[in-house]
Amino acid sequence: MTAQGAQGGTFLVPEHTDVTEAESLHRGGNCQDVSEILARVGDKWSVLIVMMLGSGPRRFNELKRMVGGISQRMLTLTLRGLERDGLVTRTIYPTIPPRVDYALTDLGHSLSEPVKALGAWAIENKATIRQAREAFDARRDEAQDWGGRRFG
Amino acid sequence: MTAQGAQGGTFLVPEHTDVTEAESLHRGGNCQDVSEILARVGDKWSVLIVMMLGSGPRRFNELKRMVGGISQRMLTLTLRGLERDGLVTRTIYPTIPPRVDYALTDLGHSLSEPVKALGAWAIENKATIRQAREAFDARRDEAQDWGGRRFG
DNA sequence: CGGGATCCCCAATGATACTG
DNA sequence: CAGTATCATTGGGGATCCCG
């Protein structure tokens, strides 16, 4: 599909149903299936925590401090979710005071690879994105000026 | 995390506070900064749309059909957000009926790489995760049984 | 220290209708 | 077709208290 002119009307969409998943990923087919998993992965907190745990096991409050800005509730819920998905293990040391260590499973580590790549991208392009946003917003404000000024 | 058994009392946690950001990324330091960017990336719809656009420019309703399940409102908002961040371009063809093409910018393409890696991981481990979830839930239900049964 | 239970609120998202 | 505007919903997520 290269030579698509401006054919305004309806166009045919091939029944993109039974493609193999492996292929559909790279071609942009029915990615709805992935969204379910990506929802977990894409979750703001999950990603951060997986990144944190990439460097080794951490304790609850240790994670809380590292993430910064997460409530204990969300930390608990997120860790539970990750545990449920088999991405982290929860090890309880029945000491006093109690101690709980969270660590990535093998699956978790395998996830941390693409996640770290994403994190690296984020850091690498942080400035660029910020600039793009400011430029976009500036353009928008400008546009509002026109609308606001009754061409006086 | 090999030795240290259950050493009951208080124990020392090294003051892991003043790491540099560059180092913190790979080691799991204070990644809060990244979360802002990751929030956009991690957004369910954004990720899917970036994946869709990875295979070339798409029209509005084309994307809507491909994503499947997204409301036109969310599609508009998501695309605006991506445009604002300099990840996609919006090209209007003043034809009748109107036509708008969305395409990844260079920045968008650079993002699509790690995103595709993540998608690949998601597909690859979809089954494993589903199993882990079922196992976890089964364990939880089991536990609830104990609570329910008054040790008959 | 780790975390369950509760209350509460607002931002994210969907549904619907209208416009160019 | 591509979007904007409005309304209704809901559940994500913070604050707080309490327990083992």
Automatic annotation (TrEMBL), chains A, B:
Domain HTH hxlR-type: 31-130
Keyword presence, Transcription: yes
Regions crossing the membrane: none
InterPro entries: HTH_HxlR, WH-like_DNA-bd_sf, WH_DNA-bd_sf
Keywords, alphabetical: DNA-binding, Transcription, Transcription regulation
Protein name: HTH hxlR-type domain-containing protein
